[in-house]
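Data availability (excerpt). The following record was deposited with the supplementary files.
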Amino acid sequence: MAKHWADFQYEIYLNGMAGTVPRLPTDLTRLEELTERRLGPGPVGYVSGGAGDGSTMRANRAALARHRIVPRMLRDVGERDLAVRVLGRSLPAPLALAPVGVLSIMHPDAEPAAARAAAAQGVPFILSSASSTPLEQVAEAMGDAERWFQLYWGRDREVTRSFLQRARANGFSVLVVTLDTPLLSWRPRDLDQAYLPFLNGVGTANYFTDPAFLAGLAKPVHEDPNAAVLHFLGLFGDPGHTWPDLAFLREHWDGPIVLKGVLHPDDARLAADAGMDGVVVSNHGGRQVAGSVAAADALPRVVAAAGDRLTVLFDSGVRTGDDVFKALALGARAVLLGRPYVYGLGLDGQAGVDHVIRALLAEFDLTLALSGHATPAAITAADLVEEPA
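Predicted structure:
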């Protein structure tokens, strides 16, 4: 039976009868401002900051705002079903939680709290390689719920192979390979605070528990933590990878592989030629290339190039239910939500993440209905107009 996501608003109103109002805003665009006020400048800057002067983050939001929905009337939307099939998986809505590293800087419950919230709503949780919590513990927190693993594809093949083996053994079903971060970009908010969590061993949990990684250390991590951090930094990224190297990942992962960070249509074609299953149209939320094309502007061209050879997902700039609608209209099969759920985690732990997921999908459900559609599959590019830039 389809889940009635829109009913969350009535739950809120009924709770109001007893004098209870939501602990967090239901306008999810307000979460960043609240987080800025309540958390320290280092962690907040790390999550909300971007490359250069932030122009790519602004471009992501502006591109989505430029597309406007054209509602249709007198269509039967009394019964709606947001469920979709993505990469062979049945999802209750076209949404997954994007991979975000070092979540312990936002809340002590870190990745397990976000993962439990995702599992409770049936939404896939994508665990970052750079998590604060070993993948085994996150898997245990999720039970049988849908979980995907994001790989930062580093220099050490044995560590990569070990990560893939551990992820598969712990029920992670889809591999999401981030291509756009072989190096960290110039991020002034982090640089001005001289704030990089990895230098303190935060975000290294998967590495510091990995047998292949540990084999490269002269001493155990607890005996020489600085050496372990330096070893991590030396293998974390590899700017030398090229398209033929994907064969190694395909050889060692028997499930779907999705390449994250694709913005050019030719890269989508190369991904399909390499036997990949999908791409995420993403500019890393504006965190990697200052002056980059907005992800929503790149999306239609990538979708056209992918044709029926790849599943196209989308992230970068998604904050609201209407953003989800617009991304689907532009050709995405589902969206990955990043910063909003991280702000929810920072402000209210697992309950905050749960609030963000439910609020976003309630707003999407209502936007879908009020625009004249009963399923995500009914949305097309004809449902949008583009305002002049």
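Summary of structural features: DSSP finds 16 helices and twelve strands in the chain.
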